[in-house]
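Need tokens for this chain, all 281 residues.
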Amino acid sequence: MEVQEKILKSKSFNKINAFMKNEKLSHAYFIICESDFSLKQFVKAFSMKLVCSSHTNCGVCSGCRKIENDFHPDVLVYPKGKNFMVADSESIIENVQIKPLESTYKVIIINRIDNSTVQAQNKILKTIEEAPNNVIFLITAINSNAVLPTIKSRTQVLEIENFEDVSEEHKQIEDFCFEMLENMNSTKKITEYVGRFSEKTNFKNRLIILGETFEKLLYAKTTESQHSKLAEQFEVGAIGEIFSLITTALKQFEANVNTNIITDILLFKILEVKYLWSKNK
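Here are the structure tokens for all 281 residues:
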């Protein structure tokens, strides 16, 4: 089953259908999930419903086709860079005053507001609360603790399912990553995992899935999860630094640095960052 089809049949999306049918659509939704992929796909389906000429996600009208092609004049996507910044807030404040050109609604999407600065969140706060009636905010996050309570209190919180279809190979790598993080409590333990992690076959996938693993730990810090106990071992700040370490490791791999060297540095750094942040709690 296609991802969009799964979303349209989900309990979360049924809530959206009910809101629209009963004319109880909120001015802003705070959408949380452990999967960045699922967040983006859900927001795509939601925005498509809002701009669809029949509000049915028909897939054939002009509004739906434009969403499918990632361009609709009434759907604005932020951040414009890697993370949501004050400049993005200023752009939104300016754009919400412009009436929709083609649709009933103007949709403002803020992806991963949990990666934004406090200043950017404070800047957009009043606009979320006092936006024109035809403006709808779709705001996503994995780590809801990184979002100001004042933002959450001004939105309708919607916790959605994970719609990712993962292969057996992906699942095996993810299980390995969780096992490694659960057991990697000393430099001696790290040496036991360097060899397995650094195998050249699927090395890039292991790095990417390790990043996804830490995203799930971020989510587990705010929602009851099978990984909640492991999540307690990593401070939010530590996970932020670890994302940067993984990005660096991916760049090193693309530059043909030896996978053993990349893995050795990466795993020791992860342990070091984990220790330093826990020490400074």
